[in-house]
Amino acid sequence: MDLDRHITAFTDFADGHLTGEKSRDYYILLKREHSLRVLDNGREIVENETVPAHEAELAILASLYHDIGRFPQFARYGTYKDADSLNHGRMGVLAMRTLDLPDDVAEAEWRLIRATVGLHNAKSINPATRGCLRTMVNVVRDADKIDIFNVILDHLGDRDNPRKEVILSLEEHPTRYSGHVYEAVLSGLPCDYRTLRYSNDFILMLIGWIRDLSYETSKTLLYRRGLVDKAFFLLPADDRIKALEDRAHAYLSA
Fold it and tell me: pTM, whole model, 2 decimals?
């Protein structure tokens, strides 16, 4: 597998959606750079976990291609909200079926990569999903979550950033968050993007992802990069948030 060829194919496809309009191109470049960081995260995960070499190669490729559906999504609909457009995982599968991608991957392997792209943003993964596909999905979902932490917290940390599409155009308020989102995170239950109202809800959802991570390396990366502390720094300093913070740190240090 020649990873450089795949990176070139991916970036050429992404850059083909640039229009020269700075305000729109920002979002295309955002997802291009996000995908390359997810690739790096995926590589770090498989290098530090006991992932068989062939599965590791496929997981790395799936990490690169995981968000390839974002580019036609934004070009067609002007949004990254799946609820207002189409599921970007499915759009990625469709895009990959039409692209002329490097020929150093067998068709059976491409099917696994496309399946991973289609599953990477699923609310949950069927327990019957096993073997190589399960490994690939777990690596990509972890690698993706780590960088989503990074992207969202960077945008929310810059209160003057006008690009609300990145945080799904949620209402920004320094102290408000939804009780049902807090309770779901505290109980270890999944959150639905469609139920988020405030930007703090998004941060809470990110914190809830900590318990969904499949690999110790992923937790280490979050902690080492200071992303968990940054998330809580951006939330209101009330007793309920403090209780959640204590629980999150206890889980990460266990």
Answer: 0.93
Determine the average pLDDT of the residues in 188-216: 91
**235 vs 156, which has greater pLDDT?**
235
Cβ 143 vs Cβ 63: under 8 Å: yes
Contact between 158 and 81 (Cβ < 8 Å): no
Tens of pLDDT, residue by residue over 230-244, are: 999 999 999 999 999
CA distance 14 to 77: 16
Question: Residues 210, 248: contact at Cβ < 8 Å?
Answer: yes
In three-state secondary structure terms, 169 is: coil
Domain ranges of the chain: 1-142, 170-254
For residue 203, give the nearest of 179, 177, 166 by alpha carbon: 177
- What is the b/e burial string over 119-149, where b = at least 16 CB atoms within 10 angstroms of the residue's CB? bbbeeebeeeeeebbbbbbbbbbbbbbbbbb
In this structure, which CATH number among 1.10.3210, 3.30.70, 1.10.286, 1.10.287 belongs to the domain 1-142? 1.10.3210
Alpha-carbon distance of 177 to 32, in angstroms, equals 30
Query: pLDDT tens for residues 115-140?
Result: 999 999 998 899 999 999 999 999 99
